[in-house]
Design a protein that fits this description.
- The chain is α/β, with parallel strands linked by helices.
- The protein has a single domain, classed as 3-Layer(aba) Sandwich (Rossmann fold).
- It is 41% helix and 16% strand.
- It has an 8-stranded mixed sheet, sandwiched between helices.
């Protein structure tokens, strides 16, 4: 279920050692730090935040190049580099062992963070996360690395502007600038399943995994393969809801997340 209205508080700015970061901060209690997908911003979680009870502190973070976080904060597109941005946010806000949550490509960042610094995080939540092997959303972009490199060449970038925008729109991503299309493609181009698989294998914190059976970008078999590799924790399957279950299943997820995080040691 989706709440009646979204939660869109003003985005705040935080200065971390790497630069400026946009974030939102709602509620009080056990902390959940939410990382958006690619492309994505704090607004990706406006429905889940609306459904979350007030006794859970829900913090959303914009990654470099999207929303209120400039690309200059951390231009390298790897999950590890982007995870360091989130880690510095956690440190600067003086959060004590928060739960880290990632949706879609945000799952690669969350997994990198939780696997590298297990003592600093209470648990991990993966929602419709990128799996550990190629799936539909990735197979649609077999030339993602060469294309992301070619987009650094101005004449090619100019020619690719309209086709690139059309491709993102067909995939359900609307309203992004050309620069954000390019950065999103660079994030995709630099991603390696082998590295993500190592992060998943290295996880030592309790892990919740949620997915839908009708996700057009990450088929159910890939999501199930991922959850078998993660440490113990809730496994939540929805028969429908698509890729953005943080909206379509916000009410159910908020209830499950809040109950779980309140019971974590």
């Amino acid at each position: 279920m989706t709440p009646e209205s979204p939660s869109d508080p003003p985005v705040q700015q935080l200065q971390i050692p790497l630069g400026s970061v946009g974030y939102t901060d709602e509620g009080q209690g056990p902390v959940v730090v939410a990382i958006p997908g690619n492309p994505g911003t704090v607004r990706d979680y406006r429905w889940l935040a609306s459904a979350m009870p007030d006794d859970v502190r829900f913090i959303r973070v914009d990654l470099p190049g999207f929303g209120a976080t400039p690309l200059s904060t951390s231009p390298h597109p790897s999950p590890e580099s982007r995870a360091e941005v989130v880690r510095q946010v956690i440190q600067c806000l003086e959060l004590d062992r928060p739960v880290v949550l990632g949706h879609s490509f945000g799952g690669t960042v969350a997994a990198a963070l939780a696997s590298q610094y297990p003592a600093e995080h209470r648990a991990l939540i993966l929602l419709a996360s990128v799996a550990i092997r190629p799936h539909a959303g990735i197979r649609q972009l077999p030339m993602r690395l060469p294309l992301s490199c070619a987009l650094s060449i101005p004449p090619f970038a100019a020619l690719a502007r309209k086709p690139l925008a059309a491709a993102f729109k067909r995939s359900g991503f609307h309203g992004w600038s050309h620069e954000q299309h390019v950065q999103a493609l660079k994030v995709l181009g630099r991603f390696r399943f082998s590295r993500h698989k190592r992060h998943i294998a290295a996880l030592r914190v309790p892990t919740m995994v949620a997915w839908t059976a009708d996700d057009p970008l990450i088929e159910e078999a890939a999501s199930q393969d991922l959850y078998w590799r993660c440490p113990s924790g809730p496994r939540i399957r929805f028969s429908d809801g698509g890729h953005n279950l943080q909206k379509t299943r916000a009410v159910e997820l908020a209830e499950s997340i809040s109950v779980w995080v309140r019971g974590l040691p």
